[in-house]
Here is the input.
Amino acid sequence: MTDFTARYEKLNAAQREAVDTIDGPVMVVAGPGTGKTELLSVRVANILKQTDELPGNILCLTFTESGATAMRERLAGLIGADAYRVAIHTFHSFGTEIINQYAEYFYHGAHFRPADELSAYEILYGLFEKLPHNNPLSPRMNNEFTYLRDAQSAISDLKKSGLTPDELLKIVERNEAFCEWVQPKLQAALGDRLSKKSFPAASELLQDIAGYDEEALALINYQPLYELMSASLSRALDQSMDEDSTKPLSAWKRDWCEKREDGELTLKDTKRTAKIRAIAGLYYDYLVAMQERELYDFDDMILRVVHAIEVFDELRYNLQEQYHYLLVDEFQDTNDAQMRLVWNLTNASANEGRPNLLVVGDDDQAIYRFQGANISNILGFRELYRDVQLITLRDNYRSSEPILTTSREVITQGNERLETSIPQLNKQLNAHRPPVERAVTFTEYATDLQEYAAIAQRLARRDTSQSHAIIARNHRQLRALLPYLQAAGLPVRYDAQDNILDNPMIRHLELLARITHYLAHNQHDEADAQLPELLAHPAWEIETATLWKLSVEANQKHLGWLDLMVERTDRLGDIASWLIGAARAAHHQPLEYILDLLGGTTAETIADNEMSGDEAAPVAGTSELFVSPFKAYYFTVDHLENDPARYAQFLYALRTLRAHIREYRPDQVLTLHDFIEFIDLHHSLKIAINSTNTYGLSADAIELLTAHKAKGLEFDDVSVISLNDDVWGETARGRARLIRFPHNLSIDSSGDTTDEKLRLLYVALTRAKQTLHLSAHAALETGKATALVGYLAGGGVVIDQVDAPSASRLLAIEEIDWRGSLAAAGGNRDDILRPIIERYKLSATHLNNFLDVTRGGPETFLLHNLLRFPAAMSPHAAYGSAIHATLQRAHQHLRATGKRRPIEDIFGDFESSLRECHLSDLDFDYFLTRGSDALNGFLTARYESFNNEQIAERNFSGQGVQVGEALLTGAIDLIEVNENDKTITVTDYKTGRASSGWQGKTDLERIKLHHYRQQLIFYKLLLEHSREYAGYTVIQGRIEYVEPTSSGRIVTLDIDFDGSRETDELLPLISAVWQRIMDLDFTTDKAGTTYKDILAFEDGLLT
Here is the structure.
């Protein structure tokens, strides 16, 4: 810890207090620019310095991978390699790590598959069709269920809150009882028009509510409705009496009450609770349906972990024993499910309500309500734990005083703040950056287009040595501004959320798929109608004159285009034959293979596993004379080198499409018909499939950001644009939700309250370090007037109103094409790849792919492992994957239950796993027979050696493994740990023909065995440098072939590791490959064809 003292001494008094207070619960209120990341890093180092704790006993939770990376990098400067043994996770990666590390507690459901939004929608639609007519969610309009989309959102919100259907129902029952009890009292007290004479009646109502008795419900953050109503009414009544006015009480009545059909006053939550009761039943049925189809969605991750920790005491005790110190960053962004996870990690009785827990956050920057974040977690933290130490960071090292003053004038207009609930808390920030002249400006322009043009004009004169950002409320303003910046020749960087269904490459693929589908179903007229559009695309290399002649001939002979094409012997004839073959294949081949065929992807792929040594075969039924030009047109090495931004845009779109297809109806073998239906449903339901595309990559680019995206960033110069009330203020409204939660279920993710809008604007303003330029417009270009945002009215900032530009300038502004598409230009190949390698970890398979020059070596690694070009898994790889999953489940069953899984169930598991690979009927039947025979022989020989101490499929992606400079990852099939002497044996299962020894008889076999040996040595390094198995020694590696030899023998190939000799041999090679990857060097001197060529390439890397 050579740097610890120097960095500790740079901390201010409040930061040091947070670093030094390592015992008990601590809440650090850290405003923007107050140095919380450094505080967290130094605190972890101090815990290790002051205690006997191991790095693995400290858990740090944050919300983004970038936040976790930043924390680990700072920590590495303090404690070196031990920084990678501290458990630094996002909440999601921590949930994944728990499921991986304690798989026996998640055995049921471990083989479930993810479902996409559309699959979830279809399941819900089926449930809605079964609702009785009197269910409050059953109404339809235009034959569509009115409440379906909102019900889907409500279920997602409930999962993020951590509530199960049973827990929700208990809350509903309590709410219903109170609403029924309070209604006559509410009518008597406040039913008539309010006057000052109503005050005593309201006071009497409060006394009645104070005597209400409700059975306690043991849920953290649960507040009974009667308590919430009483507190709210009490505040309104006190304010009315203080002001001698009925206005505060009337406002409360409008918020809480409504008239029934009989004219009597009742709580709004009466009707809301009735709908939530219906949601509770639907929520339960939805979970059952998902379980029956063996599906899960993203929101299930934390919920599963929370449920397991609360149900299995042993799991909770193990986690509490493992993590003695817990730090949570951005605590204001936690949702209730995440808060329950934190609570279960820290509620050990030995802590007596005072765990070693530090949370860092800022209630004023809680802007992720739409993602389920609940600000009450930070507001109520001091009630949840005993004797919480409250520390406030007030020294701001980012912004100058004028910027902080403007920001504070905005945020102090809010009510839902710590400063309003903790009287002694002062969050006024002290600026440490000296101000510059005109640090804050606010300019109002006549129209929105004039505002955008002026912003571009000002930034054209910018200081390029400074960082610049433009922050908008949402993408709509950024997209409108972008053409003006491009017209001014300004370099920009913009991460746009693009709907891939609008991508021209995806539309091309969709068109090709539709034509193939029409031909497969004898819809020749429909196919003929769309063939001209397809063939006119330059990818097909058909001259315009040729297409014109074909069109004329078809018209004269009254024949279809395809009828004429099949008679030709030129390229058009080849295309016709290929289309007919593709249509024939679409009848019996699964969708993944058809998409490969249409996309021109070769059958052989480089996968991320080495289960099978078999090669894939081409899709049957297609022309061998013609290959779809799709891949050659959009994806070549030349395209990557010459237009990398466009290459990346197309690749990310294709990857996103294939990923969504795999999550759509994952329990079915999809066909081309399903693909067309998938596309049509997304269009009809207006469900976008978004992919993030980066436009512009130059180092001096101006960053274009939404306020949410800007969180956590800082820039010398910031422009906050379109500061109009209908964009940032009170009149900005999202879509009204038809399903509203009661007041005591604050999990509505709309994000439309005044406090939430103030916080979002506050975040935008506090990104600026030196200068902050605010701008708005008086009217839209259409002439519609629009007011300035009210939150900035009356502040200390003077609003400059700009005179209208000259007529010629106005014309120039209007001539800029606001409809122009984004230019996916700028940067080079390295700019595209650099963000990928910032998060990259090297696996054994990736290492072997890089080194195997007989299969393309670095170039293949670049395409398949870094860029991850999507392709279907070959049938042989799918077979290997199914065998792998089957053996994994057999091991996990034994570990979870203590009993061996019945043989017939293992065969059933294999059939299910193989079916999930979505093979053709022919391939499925072949591999089912082959696999069943292989498993029968393997289990006969090896099943008795299975034991419940063996750990199957341990994934090390979250273990922070670092060897030298290289970050390593991987999943190991089987680990056997001897706890007495701290030794480990690793086993890797293989399918395919078994080798009799490590020498190999053919060149191909020697290459395969060379990879296997390096894989086992890699696993030794991975384990010995992991957080979980630091201090253990891997003494043996084993390759175990699942398929018996012709004589029925099961072959194993062992390596008895001789200390560190083998790893010492591999380490320099890993380091050399890692450096080549980090340098983005994917060149080879020459292509290889033999085992000796691979060895020569490896030697060349080391010299």
